[in-house]
Every structure is written in C-alpha cells, then in structure tokens.
Amino acid sequence: MRSIRVHWSFWVALLLAVPVLGVLSSWARLDADSLSVLTHQWDTVMGGYARTSALLAVGVALGVAVVGGLSAAAVTLLDFPGRRTLEWALLLPLAMPAYVLAYVYTDALQFSGPIQPMLRAAFGLEGRLWPDVRSLPGAIVLFVLCLYPYVYLLTRAALGDTGVRLMEAARLLGAGGWRRVRTIALPLARPALAAGVALALMETLADYGVGSYFGLNTFTTGIYRAWLSMDDRQAAAQLASVLLLAVVALIALERWARRGLRVSSTRGGATQASSPPIRLRGWRGLAVLSACGLPVLLGFVAPVALLARLIRQEALYGEFGLPWELFQRWAANSLSLALVSSALAVAVALALGHALRRHPGRVLSGATGVVSLGYAVPGAVIAVGLLLPVSLLQTVWPADGAWARWSPTAVITGTVLGLVYAYLVRFTSVALQSVEAGYAQISPTLDESARLMGTRGWRLWSRVHAPLLWRPALAAALLVFVDVMKELPATLVLRPFDSDTLAVIAYQLARDERLGEAALPSLALVAVGLIPVIMLSRAMRRGLPHA
Prior knowledge:
- The protein is mostly helical.
- It folds into two domains: 12-44 and 323-513, MetI-like (MetI-like fold, Orthogonal Bundle), CATH 1.10.3720; 59-321, Orthogonal Bundle (MetI-like fold).
- The protein is 78% helix and 1% strand.
- It has helices at residues 2-16, 18-24, 32-44, 46-77, 83-89, 98-109, 115-123, 136-172, 177-206, 209-214, 219-229, 233-264, 282-316, 324-358, 362-372, 379-396, 408-414, 417-440, 444-452, 457-486, 489-494, 502-511, 515-542; strands at residues 78-79, 278-279.
- α16 crosses α18 (417-440).
- The longest helix is centred in the N-terminal third of the chain and has 37 residues, at 136-172.
C-alpha cells in the first residue's frame, strides 16, 4: 500500500514540475545554434535585463523593508491615536495588484491628468511638474506600495507580545529608546524582515504588467519579447532559466529566514495587556499616525478613489466603452477559471496532505516540497516551460487525419486545459500550505483512536479529518481563487481565443491608453482581492499565528 501512495505522489509532483523541467531542459540541447543565441543575448540584452532587474529588486527590497518593518514596529511597540485602525488598514494595499496601481497613477500623474493642471492653475506654474511615473523609480515606488504588507505581516508576528514585554523590561532597566530598538527589536525582527523581503522580491521578479506597461527591460518582459515578438523559443527558455535561478536563491533565503523566525517569535505566557506598548500623545502620536497612514493612503485609498473617478467620468460623458455584456463575459471567464482552479488545487492539496500524514518519509516529503516551489515560479517561466515540451511533441504528432484536432498544441493553447494546469502548477502550493497547517492542528492520537475502532482509509479521512479541515480548505480555496483572478503573465500566453479575463482586459485597455475603460475591470479585481485581506484582518484580531 505504501508503494502505491509513494508512486502516486511522485507522479503528481512530476506532473506539476514539468514547466520547470522544460525550462531546464533547454540547456541539455546546446548546439552551435543555441550557443550563438546565448552569446548574442549575452552581448546585447542580457546585461540590460540583469541590470534593470537587479536595480528594481534592490529598490523594492529596501523600500518594503523600511515601510513594512517600521509600520509593524510602530503598531506593535507603540500606542498612538488610530493604532487599532491601522493594525488592519495597513493590509489593504495587499488587495491592489501592482499593474492596476501602475495604470491608476499613470493616469492621475500625467501632464494632462487631474493633478498637474490643478496645481498649475493654483500656483501659476508652467510645464511638467514632475518626471513621468513610467520609469524605473516609479516602478519601485509602486511595488513598495503594494508589497510592503508581506514584511508588515511577518514582522508584526515576529515581534508580537514577546517584543512588547522585552522592550518594556529594557525600559524599566534604564535602556534608552535607540538602545532598545538596536538590541531587542531589530534582532527579533531581522528574520521576519528577510522572509518578507524575499516574498516581495518573488512577486516583483514575476511581474509582467508593470514592466511591460512602463517599458522596462526586465527578465520577465524579455522572456515574452523573445517568445512572442521574435519567436525564439531557445532564447526565451534561456532567459527563463536565469530568472528561475534568481527565484531559487530567494526561496533559499526565505526558508533560511523562516528558521530564525521560529526561534525568535516564541510566545511567553504573559498577555499584551500586562506589558502595554509605549504611549505616544501630542505631535509625536500624530507624526507616527501620519507616517503609518501614508502607505495606506497611497497604496489603497487614493487608487480606489481614482478608479471610481474614472468610472464616473466615463458614465457622465456617456462614452463608456465597455458594453455590459462583454464585461459580464470577462467576469464569467475569470470566475469560472478561478472556481475550477481553486477546487482542483484544494483537492490535490488535500490528497497530498493526507498521503503525507499516513506515510511520512523522504520520498513524500520531497514530492510535496517540489509542489510547494510552484508559487515562487513566475508565470512567465511556467508558460515557457509548458510550451517548450508541447512544441517538441508537436513535431512528431500527425499533422492531418483524426488525430490532428487532438494535437498537443491544440489541446494546450486551444482549450482552458493548459491555462488551468499552469494555475495548478503555480498555486497548488498556496493550498498545500494551508492544508498542512490544518493537519498540524490534528493530533495523531485521533488517527490512532479511529484505527482502533476500525476506521481506516477513506472513512478515516471523511469522518475524522474532513470535519476538522474544512476551515483550512476553505481558506486555501479563497486564496487560490484570488490569486487566479489576478494572474496575468501565464494567462496572456496560454488563454484560448475569446477567453479573456478581467486581468487580461485591464492590461490590454491600459496598454492602449484606454485607462477610463480599464478602471471597471481593475476595480473588480481590487474588490476580489479584499477577500484574503478581510480574512487576515480577522485573524489578526484573534491573534496572529506565529510562523
């Protein structure tokens, strides 16, 4: 029985690892032509891609560390007016996709947008008041605004009650403010900062919408340019493999940081009420409130208001270019893909989690570990890694006859099968993490008691595990649902004809400078993105679980 379980899990992991293996296989077929392509890329574009991606990564890393780390320290260690509201409000930018933020601020801050003409009229100014937001510094700022909640969430969990107690004890012992921060808060928060920064950088390197819209030469935009514009599969695969190596390095950093996070965030027995945070009143409290509220204002409140303004303008002038029937079709496509993908991802996660619980071992742990890497793999890499083996199979597939309609290319790119598969590769790990956390709360003695009473196999899962796992499974389904709704890079390449989603339509309309029409699908994506934010806010009110 054990061999069957191990064999089944191994093949599931191998199936979900096909895109990564497809990308890596490009280096196994090096010949004279491939070497010339690699040399040409190294001499022409590789340096630019590496330089832009590195500058973007460094800027985003510093920004999210400062904004997320300081805001987490403020709401955890200090007591100031508005602190209770900011505890959950600082998570709101997590609902804002980066490419939506790029569209909104491009429209608002351009020369003819709503802000510059108002300032020119009010102060008698002329000309452009600031550089174009579509630049590398602009992209860094936008990524920081929507990704700092990763650092905020992990850092706040790491500090927790322990940080408050230790800071208060140090104060009673006579330690000054800066010494308390240097000797207590920073060591406690350092592992969480590193883990949050790594997660934010994974999202940054995986992004295509912002880089493409701003005209940045990153590895992700280079992959799409090589594949779709130049029709050079080998070049796309080589660029994807370089990006994959960067992601693997970030995964190693994130896991190393989480080991430290477990050690430094252990809870004690005292409650937060017994060791209150440092109270700030007057101008100091207002200063901290303003500093913590600024990311929420710029990362969520202002973009939502600007999107609503664009929609209102389109409706008032009677020039709303999106027929309601088309919007309903795009929304239905997004919802159906998200529902199917989330259901399948949760089913695979439950099956793997059950197999790992019944037969723990290196083989199963390795298989689930491979699946867990999927979320860190950018959508661009998954798309290229999937289409490469498909193109190889196409060369030996019959070009005519009854089998032609069932060719790999027709099945993968002509139906939603390839798109759903790409979603599973990327987002099953999200569901698996939630399911594994749920299984960790189920005592092994329950399984032993059930087996003594003759309950095994399917009956054990349905009668004992399922009633205890429905909450983690529901949370996993919601998280995968939202991630699929916002996914852009893989959807752009793998979607079938006439199967556009809200994310694709928002990107295409913004690319065509139809920002008013892009506002409605963008606002719909933001509304869906609020679901996990509400879940996290409720969890925070009950007390954050520690990593």
